[in-house]
Amino acid sequence: MADKPKTGRRAFLKGGLAAAGGLAASKxxxxxxxxxxxxxxxxxxxxxxxxxxxxxxxxxxxSKVQRRNVPWLTVDTKTSINFTPIHHxxxxxxxxxxxxxxxxxxxxxxxPAQHRxxxxxxxxxxxxxxxxxxxxxxxxxxxxxxxxTANSGMEWRGPQLNGVQFTHGMIHNVxxxxxxxxxxxxEAGLKPGASWLLAEGADAAAMTRSIPxxxxxxxxxxxxxxxxxxxxxxxxxxxxxxxxxxxxxMWIKWLRRLEIGDKPWHAREESSKYTDxxxxxxxRRFTWAMDAKSVITNPSPQAPITHGPGPMILTGxxxxxxxxxxxxxxxxxxxxxxxxxxxxxxxxxxxxxRFYYDFNWDGGEMLLQSRATDSTGYVQPTKDALxxxxxxxxxxxxxxxxxxxxxxxxxxxxxxxx
Amino acid sequence: MSRFLxxxxxxxxxxxxxxxxLGLGRVALPEExxxxxxxxxxxxxxxxxxxxxxxxxxxxFAEKCAxxxxxxxxxxxxxxxxxxxxxxxxDERPLKTLGSYWPYLSTAWDYIYxxxxxxxxxxxxxxxxxxxxxxxxxxxxxxxxxxxxxxNVNFSEITLQNEPNFRLDDRATVEYPAFTEACMTDCKASVxxxxxxxxxxxxxxxxx
Lengths: 418, 208
Hints:
Chain A is mainly beta. Chain A has 2 domains: 77-281, Oxidoreductase, molybdopterin-binding domain (Sulfite Oxidase, Chain A, domain 2, Alpha-Beta Complex), CATH 3.90.420.10; 293-415, Immunoglobulin-like, CATH 2.60.40. Chain A has helices at residues 34-37, 41-44, 131-134, 164-168, 181-188, 213-219, 383-390, and strands at 68-69, 80-83, 102-103, 117-121, 127-129, 140-147, 171-180, 196-201, 208-212, 221-226, 229-230, 240-242, 255-261, 276-277, 283-285, 293-298, 310-319, 327-331, 339-340, 342-344, 353-361, 366-373, 403-406, 412-417. Chain A has a 5-stranded mixed sheet. In chain A, strands 6, 7, 10, 11 and 12 form a 5-stranded antiparallel sheet that branches. In chain A, strands 19-18-22-23-24 form a 5-stranded antiparallel sheet, with no helix packed on it. In chain A, a hairpin with a 7-residue loop joins strand 18 (327-331) and strand 19. The radius of gyration of chain A is 24 Å and the shape is globular. Chain B is mainly alpha-helical. Chain B has a single domain, classed as Cytochrome Bc1 Complex, Chain D, domain 2 (Orthogonal Bundle), CATH 1.10.760. Helix content of chain B is 30%, strand content 7%. Chain B contains 7 helices and 5 strands, in the order H-E-H-E-H-H-H-H-E-E-H-E. Chain B has helices spanning 2-12, 30-36, 54-64, 66-69, 105-115, 126-139, 171-174; strands at 26-27, 51-53, 149-151, 166-168, 193-196. In chain B, strands 2-3 form a two-stranded antiparallel ribbon. The longest helix of chain B is centred in the middle third of the chain and has 14 residues, at 126-139. At the A-B interface, strand 1, strand 4, strand 5, helix 5 and strand 13 of A face strand 1, helix 2, helix 5, strand 4 and strand 5 of B. Strand 5 (127-129) of chain A pairs antiparallel with strand 1 (26-27) of chain B.
C-alpha cells in the first residue's frame, strides 16, 4: 500500500476503438498447448455414472464461489448476515444455495408437518391452514429481487469493504412460486376498517413487520418455492412472505401468522431498526421501497481484469423497487463522460436486470461507475447527494453510485471520487 | 345498480368480483389464536393483564439478561446496549436505545416477550416481562422510583421522549424530484480519488 496511484488524467479511455485489440486472432503460440496435445484423464477414463449425486453440486473447480460473512460486523453468526457472491454470477437468477442469509435467531429448521399458517384479527373468520391446504390455492410465479435494507450500509462514511460481494451482496433474485395473499385473505374475509397486516415468523425471533393492506392486496405472495424447488431453510422454508420491491426485512421468513388490524404495530424492526436517522436527529419510518440502484460486478476488487488490454466485458446488475430498469449508463473516466450500457435478459418490475458494456480496454487506469435510471425516471444518485440529505448515520437505503478504481494491472479498488 | 357498484368497489379493493370462498383451512380455536397472538400495539392493544416492579425487574434482568446487555443495560462487549445515549442522536456516533431513540414502550414489551432472552425465547412470564420493562424504564431515567410498578393499567400513560421525532417516509417529496438528471458528456472538468478502501484491512478474502 506504499504509494497510492494518483488519479492521473493520463490513459483514460475515450471510448473509441483502442489499438490494442484486433490482433489476437493472428497471434501464434510459442509451443503446442498440452491442453490439446496431451490426452486428459476425462478423455480416456469413464467418469461417474448417473446417481453419483442425487442432488448435483457445482464443479469442484468452482469451490471459491461461496456466500461469505464479515465476522466483525456482528456479534454472533446467529444474528448476522452473509453476502451473495455476485461477482461470480451472471444472468439475473441467483442460485438458491448462494442467496444471502440474514437471520435474527439462527435458521429455524421447521418440520413442515408441524407448520401452520394462521390468519387472525379483523377478519370474519380466524383461520388456520396446513401446508396441504395452501397447496390447493391458485398459485403464481414471479421473479423478484430481494435486497436487505442495509445493503451498502457499511459504506456511508466512505469506502470500507473492498469487494462487491460485501458492498452490494445483500441481494438475491429468484423465481417464487406462491399464493397471492389476497386469495388467502378472501377466505378469512376482511372486516370493515381493516388496513394493516402484521406478518410473523415462526423462528426464535418471531420476527414481525406491519405492512399496509393496499400493498398486500396488490402483489404480495405467500411463497413456498424458489427457482422451482422448496424454499431453502435459510430463506424461510416452508413459507415466506414476498413483498415485491420493498425492503428485505419485511419478507418474513418461516411465515406462520398474518394478523389484520387498523393501525401499524411499530414492532422492533420498524422502530429501533429499519428507521432512518437523519442528521438533525429526526428519523424516517416506513421507508419501504428500495430505490433504483446498480453496480458493476465485473471488474471489481474481487474480480480484477486478468487478461490485459483489448476486448473486454464490463457487466453488472441494476434494480428498482419502483419498477423496471430501462437504462444503465457507464463511465470509465469517473463521470466525465457516460455511455449507455447494453441491457440484456428479461426486464420485469422488481427484478434484477443485467447490463453489459463491451469495449476495448487500452490498459490505462479507469474510474468505473454505473448509474441506473428506473421506469419512473428516477436516476440513481451519487453517494454525496444522498449524504447531503441523510448524513452518514441512517444505516439503511444506501443506493448511491459505486466507484471502482482500476489500475494498469487490471486490479480494482473501492474508492470515492470528487 | 347498487349491487353492481359494490361489486365494482370490492374488485377495486382487490377482491375478486365473485369472491367465492374455496373453503380451505379451518376455523382457529381461541386458544390457538391466544398462543400466537402476543403482539402489542402502542395504544396498548394486546397487553395481557399483569404487573411487575422495577426492583423485581432488576433481579430478573441480572439473571436472564445482564450477561449480554450489562447490569444496567449498558451492553457487554458488542452485545446491544438497552440504555443510555440520551441526546446522542445528532452525535457523530449516535447510541440508539429504548431511552434515546425508540418511539413506543409497547415495542419493548412486545419484543422482549417474543424474542428474549436470546437463545431462550418464549420463556418469560407476563409479570416478569412487566418487571423487566419497568426496570428498563428505570435505567433509562424514564421513571425515577425503583419501586415503580408497571401494569397493563398504567402502561399507556408512559410516553417516550423521541416519539415526535419520527415522520413518515418523505423521499417522494425530498429526494425523488432532485434525482432525475443523467448527464452524458462533459459532466465534470476534473476527477480526483478522495478515499480508498484498501489499507483498512477489513475485507475477508476468498482464502479466509
